[in-house]
Amino acid sequence: MVIDTLNYDPARQGRVPEIDAADTPAHLLLQTHLTGSRVVKAFSNIFFKHLATLGRPTGASDRSALPIAGDEATAKEAVATLIDSLGYDAYDVGPLAESRRFAPGTPAQHAYLDPADMFAAPGRPASTEDLAKLLSA
Ligand SMILES: NC(=O)c1ccc[n+]([C@@H]2O[C@H](COP(=O)([O-])OP(=O)(O)OC[C@H]3O[C@@H](n4cnc5c(N)ncnc54)[C@H](OP(=O)(O)O)[C@@H]3O)[C@@H](O)[C@H]2O)c1
Questions:
Q1: Comparing C-alpha atoms, which of 65, 84, 50, 49 is closest to residue 127?
Q2: Is there an atom of ligand 1 within 6 Å of 47 CB?
Q3: Ligand 1 centroid to residue 107 C-alpha, Å
Q4: Is the confidence at residue 122, as pLDDT, over 90?
Q5: CATH for the stretch 2-136
Q6: For 51-105, how does the pLDDT look when each residue is reduced to its tens digit (9 = 90+)?
């Protein structure tokens, strides 16, 4: 099982010709390389400093949800357990292809960022309901 945290964000990181030329969209590329692995996309839309500070106990009113996507249920269950242990609810977005819903350029990519301070601020909680709205926006 592999957790894919990667983003391809040309606006921030520059273009990679091999990714642009590939038949497979960037958010599915890792799975095409790791054919023997069950890839679960997770943690790709939260800044590492915010991941360290936004975790809360189960049931807390300001507990946040993190999206996960993958093609294999037991792998997603394992990642959801890990996410719960870190103080977050896991929100299953669906198959790996659905991770496009929290890829760079989507509203959900910035789910925990305060628009005023972005990466300088401590991070803003996003509940399951907040995240669901962003994922469908
Ligand atoms: N940082 C976050 O908070 C965060 C949150 C969510 C998702 N992500 C995603 O996680 C990924 C990594 O982010 P990061 O913040 O860890 O970036 P980073 O600190 O810049 O680290 C990137 C790593 O990739 C290696 N690398 C770059 N180009 C390579 C190449 N062509 N071949 C082999 N290795 C290469 C670098 O190696 P060298 O050190 O040798 O250059 C470095 O170890 C990105 O896709 C990012 O969008 C990051």
A1: 65
A2: yes
A3: 22
A4: no
A5: 3.40.50.720
A6: 999 999 999 999 999 999 999 999 999 999 999 999 999 999 999 999 999 999 9
| Residue closest to 4 by CA, chosen among 81, 74, 71 | 71
Q: Are 62 and 125 in contact (CB under 8 A)?
A: yes
DSSP state of 137: -
Residue 120 beta carbon below 6 angstroms from any ligand 1 atom: no
Q: Which two tokens stand for residue 26?
A: 């960037």
Query: Can you name the residues that pair with 68 across neighbouring β-strands?
Result: 42, 92
d(CA 93, CA 115): 24
pTM exceeds 0.85, yes or no: yes
Strand partners, 39: 2
Q: Are 66 and 83 in contact (CB under 8 A)?
A: yes
Residue 31: Cβ-neighbour burial (10 angstroms; 0-12, 13-18, 19+): buried
The torsion angles phi and psi of 97, rounded to 5 degrees, stand at -60, -25
Q: Where exactly are the structural domains of the chain?
A: 2-136
